[in-house]
Amino acid sequence: MRWVAAVGGGAFVLASLAVGFRLLLLAARTRAVPETTLGLGLGLMGGFAYPLTSVARQAEALTDEIRTWLMIAAHVLMVVGIGCIAIFTWQVFRPESRAARSGVAGIVAALIGCFVWQGISPGYMAGALAKEGMAIVGINALAAVAMGWTAIESLHFATQLRRRIPLGLAEPRVARQVALWGTAASAATLITFVTLTLHFMGMDPSTSTVGALAIGPLGLIAAISLSRAFGILRPARATPAYTAD
Length: 245
Fold this sequence. Notes:
The chain has one domain: Rhopdopsin 7-helix transmembrane proteins (Up-down Bundle). The longest helix has 31 residues, at 134-164. The protein starts with a helix and ends in a 16-residue tail after the last helix. It has 8 helices and no strands. The chain has helices at residues 2-30, 33-58, 64-93, 98-120, 124-128, 134-164, 172-200, 209-229. It is an all-alpha fold.
């Protein structure tokens, strides 16, 4: 059943790369924080960190040293990507909130702490050999927190937009795009939750049947929703609204 997880996971990686690249091209013109942080977050975390982690753990033909460096690189990208997603959510949905700002600072500090902790004990070689410590588990849990937060905010905002449509105060297309992004983020959050749950049950998410049957479909949902939200599968006629005023 590994092919099921590979198809769903591969689709999500490709969608993350495509959307991330598109947003960074937009950010090059606008110089705006939302496009920059979301583009970096998707590209680094979904497009590069996840595949590098898989290669580090499964490419047994490589030397332990190479696999260790791949694991380090993957988690550098993961830490930066998660931080960018958290900043995106704060800036778009709660820019004036001190609690949100403090929450982002806490997430970033915890990410850095977990990264250093893993390096000290048990080390990134252990992570590459699928003997990861609680620090890597902590990084994955923080990824779920960041993605879950942006999912909740996006779906809530989409609901608000739908209520404004009959009054002519919002565009149906924009409401759909925001809802699709919220759906993609929700599916990504569930993937991380399933991965963490299987880890604590002593199962390998990449090889277990349960993991494949959960991660594969969720990966496809995330990939399709993400691609539609940002005009990859169906060219968007409008740019999603990056304000939740």
